[in-house]
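call fold target=Carbamoyl phosphate synthase small chain
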Amino acid sequence: MKKILILESGEVFHGASFGNHENTFGEVVFNTAMTGYQELISDPSYCDQLVCMTYPLIGNYGINRDDFESIQPSIKGLIVKELCDFPSNFRSQMTLDELFEKKNISGISGIDTRRLTRVLRNSGVVKGKIINADSDIDAEIQVLKNETFITNEVEKVSTKTPYANPGRGLKVVLVDFGSKLGILRELGKRDCDITVVSHDVSAEEILLLNPDGIMLSNGPGNPEDNTLAIEMIQNLLGKIPIFGICLGHQLIALACGAKTFKLKFGHRGGNHPVLDLKQNKVAITSQNHGYAVDQESLKNTDLEETHIALNDRTNEGLKHKNYPCFSVQYHPEASPGPEDANYLFDEFITLMEDFKSKKLLK
């Protein structure tokens, strides 16, 4: 079935539909990863977005049971150059087309993704819509310009009820703003006893669980919309060690008085170099964010910048000067991408152990 991708800026791209054939609307972003499309489409941080893959061939190793980052994908659509109909991999259980059909996700193939990426890099991310080829394009573009994004993305992807991922080690409360399963896996590898709670949990509810540490997960949307989470963090600083990833990183910054802003086209891919300012060491990281912490706003806070992105010099890491709290903008759990930054989970374990030891000595 022929389909068209239209952008609010007026560009039109002709292609073919795959998966669910319904029209779909979302923010158009691009990802530069060469592999890992299964993890990408199931990453809750892509809630309500149309993702353009810059790598030209997608679906070539199929879909398997092990590489999902959520049970129900919340991505609105996928934009690819060439869709592979006959994947080849010993783990493959279905095609990407079959998965999208089962999960009611729309996709469009045959798109000039190089041209689309250049448009997004020049103009910034824009609203887009996948529509039928026989639609009135001019009229649809006018409608698209008046479309508005929802602001409750985190509420859509966060767990509604708490649940446990038991272990015999340190007790960690994972606040789910749209958490990837990779975070659970990394904490589980370290035998943490994990309780996953909703995005709107209060500080009092967390303290009742008596955790050794708090993990603030990744998630979609504008960090400033999460006022309850910001208040929760403010009430927990200094009481329990905190580690924030991606959206969790931005929320820590906001809770400490810093500001965030929207990037022109965001960081999305598995090949982003980040400099550790203390160790003077570079890690290649997996990233997926459209907002960043305003470095100038850090000057009047108790936060210290620990990492920066080498591509555009934006902030990639923070540490509190007085309390056991640190965060990174990128994804140390990878999934997909390199695992250079995996050691940060070990640093979180050490932070919790040290804090626990000091409490016992008092």
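return ok
Residues 85 and 348 are 43 Å apart (CA to CA). DSSP finds ten helices and 19 strands in the chain.
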